[in-house]
Every structure is written in structure tokens, then in C-alpha cells.
Amino acid sequence: MNQTLIFIPHWVFEGPLLAAWIIIGVAILGFLFMKHGAGQETWSFVPVFVVVALMIQFVLPVLEVSGINPDDPTGPFTKLGLAIRGYGIFLVLAIVSGFTLAIFRAPYVGLTSDQVISLGFWMILAGIAGARIFYVIQKSDDFFSNGASIGQLLLAVVDMTKGGLVVYGSLIGGMIAGVTYLKMNGLPLARTADLIAPGMALGLAIGRLGCLMNGCCYGGICEAPLPSVTFPPGSPPYMTQLDNGSLIGIKATGNPDLQSGFRWIVEAVEEGSLAAKQGVQVGDEFSINAPDERFIRFEKMDGSESIALQISLESNRNLGLGMPSITVPVADLPARSRYVYPTQIYSAINAFLLCLVLWFYWTVRKYDGEVFALMLILYSIGRFLMELIRIDEQGQFGTGLTISQLISIAMIILGVSLLTYARRPNAKPVLLA
Q1: Which of 79, 100, 298, 312 reaches 20 to 30 Å from 262, CA-CA?
Q2: Per-residue model confidence (pLDDT) at position 6
Q3: pLDDT digits over 360-380, tens only?
Q4: Residue 409's closest CA among 399, 423, 424?
């Protein structure tokens, strides 16, 4: 996991970056003037110059991230700079790779590379919007229950630098935009869908590596002798395990009594664990109140004894008796999360194999639409099964099935329907070259 590849430091945005752009812009404008004179080619650069300057001055500083001030770790956060995230890099690679694959085969279905690029542009915009909308709906409690202002809420909704995209939202959004574009431009629907299907699978494979970099879409604790991974302090798996107690040796279930103020009920305590040493007992109702994830990440990396960061483990037993909360220094927490299923890697391998299947099936397909239908069916089966070892979603509507599993079932039905329609008796077979 490596959420942030590099930081563009904060001081760059206090003047140097804008000054550098002004110098570069004036140089480009001078070159264009010498080559084209005071014509349209020269003056058309001016709006670009102004827009980039405004983004440097007003947009990029808003996107800067705040973090621990090394000189005052327990004080207020300080601006660190603009983070270049591993998730975002892999997302760009996924988009470029997927549509490059489609462009390679475009001439075989009578499309030009420009048509594929235009299609891709609208599908990408709608796909990202759909993916984010689904994520916000899924995590609505996190977005709307913290008392954030409208401005902070809007910024949180559009801030995708650390992940927060749902694949099915992307697929649905992209499908809607793709169908609309193809219909409006009179392009073949089923044939084009077959063309882009392998690229979509390749994009999913590369995108899941971004999830691994970010630490999202993680699996549950792996106790079987299977491949597994651990994550560093501050990562989503680490913080989830801290929240439910498993990081310090507690096995717990959710507390159905929401009025009690305690989120979990202890089922078992591992012998010799940090929880056992603190006197946690079976039957305790508890909530673990931890510092911000950035404090935990900083403390575990720094190791300084002077930083008095603690987690507070509150239970109905010690509070009911008037006893103070159990406090545990962050320095005593494990250096890594417990072993979890590497669901991001499994998903990447699954999507890459799906890409290969679709790529070669395209050469033997009999009817237009078969490849895309096959993608919906096979991907949805794999995703349904993957949810069995992922723990970042909860069961919905009293079914025990996650939102992704419910959508998987719908996608399988849709895929089978499309495959049946593609092979209808009066369908025209594909003329393979």
C-alpha cells in the first residue's frame, strides 16, 4: 500500500508555481507570435494561459491536503501540499489502457479511432460520476452525519484522490453514456459494445491495483493457510480492525442496542493479547475511540516517546462502575494490521483473465453483443463471490447480501437476457475476417 506517491510541497503554491507558469506562458506566446504573427493561432493560446493560471492560483491550493506538523505533532494540522495519489495514477493508466485496446480493434468493426476516443470521453465522465454517486450513497452516513458545511460536503463528494469509486456505479454510468452517444451518432450498438468489453476488463484489472495502493476494497481477516496481506497504521483495514477490536485481540459482534452508545459486544478475547492485558472480558459492550488516522500513522512511523497519543477503550462495565476508560498508548498498537484476504489482487487477476477470455472470444463470436453480455455475466459472478471475503460493505434489505451482490444478480440477469437476444433466431451472424 502506498496512498501518496509524492507531495508537491505547499511552498510551491505560494508563488513559485504561478511565476514559473507566467514565464513559460510568455515564452510560448512569444514563440507563437514569431511563427504565426498576431493571428488566431497566437491569440487562441491566451484563454488556455489564463485558465491554467487561475487553476494554479485558486483550484490547486484547495486540493492540498493537511497533515501532522512534525514540529508540533499534537497541535493543529498544517498544509503539506498537493498529493499525487497512487490510486489516481492507476485510474488514469486503467482508462488509457482500456481504450487503447479498443482503438487497436476499431477498424475491424468500421469505427475510427476518433469515434472511439469521443465515445470514451463521455463514458469516462459518466462512469466516474456514476461511481462517485454510488459511493456517496453507500457511505451516506459518513458524508452527512458529521455536521460538515455545504462547502465542505461538496468538496468531500468531489475529492476522489484517495479512492471512493464503486465499480458498478462506473459500469452503469458508462453504459448509459455509451448507449446515448452511439444512438445519437447512428453507430452500431451491440458491435461497439463487443469492441470495448475487453478494454473495460483490462481497465478493471489495472484499477484494482490502485485499490491495493489505496488500501480500500479490502478483505476480512484471513485465518486459513491462504495468501494474505497486512496493511500499515492509518490504512482502512488497520483502522477498521482497531474500531472493531480485532487489532488488539477482540472478537466482537455489532451491538443491536444503538441507544447504549457502545458499538460492539465482546464474544471472545485472545489469550495474551493487548485487550486481555487491559482486562477486557467476554460480554463487555465497548467502543474504541481512537485519534485521527493521520496521528496513528505518524506515531507509528515516528516512534517518539514524547508524543502522548492514546486510544480510549470504553465499556459499559468500567463506565457503569464509575471507573475511567481503559487507555492504550498508540505506540503499543501492532505495527501492521492483521492478515487479510488480498481481495484487490484477486480482483485484478480475475479481471485480467476476463480480459483475455473476452479478447479471444471476440475472434470467434457468432453474433454482435455476445462479448459484452459475456463480460456482464462472468464479471458479476466473480464479484458476487468476491464479496464473500470482503468486509467493507454491509448486508442490505435484511437479505445478508451486499449492494454489490444484489447488483451482481441484476447484472447476471441482464447479461443472460442480452446473450439470449443476441442469439435470437432472426439475428444476423457476424462476418469474421
Answers
A1: 298
A2: 82
A3: 999 999 999 999 999 999 999
A4: 399
Residue keyed to cell 492504550: 328
H or E element that contains 94: helix 86-105
Q: How far is CA 391 from the centre of its chain?
A: 15
Average pLDDT in the 89-115 region?
Answer: 89
Specify the CATH number for the domain of residue 296: 2.30.42
148: its cell numbers: 460538515
Per-residue pLDDT tens for 287-327? 999 888 888 888 777 655 555 578 888 888 777 666 778 88
Here the cell at position 157 is 463528494
Q: What CA–CA distance (Å, rounded) separates 237 from 234?
A: 8
What gap in Å lies between CA 312 and CA 126, rounded to an integer? Answer: 43
Per the structure block, which three cell numbers stand in for 194? 463487443
Provide the β-strand partners of residue 81: 9, 65
Question: Is 69 inside a domain boundary?
Answer: no
Residue with grid cell 472493531, as numbered in its chain: 244
Are 300 and 336 in contact by the 8 Å Cβ rule? The answer is no
- The secondary structure of 379-424 as a DSSP string is HHHHHHHHTTTB-SS--BTTTTB-HHHHHHHHHHHHHHHHHHHHT-
Shared-domain flag, residues 94 and 213? yes
Tell me the residue ranges of DSSP E strands in 47-122: 65-67, 78-85
Instruction: Quote the domain boundaries for residue 17.
Output: 4-63
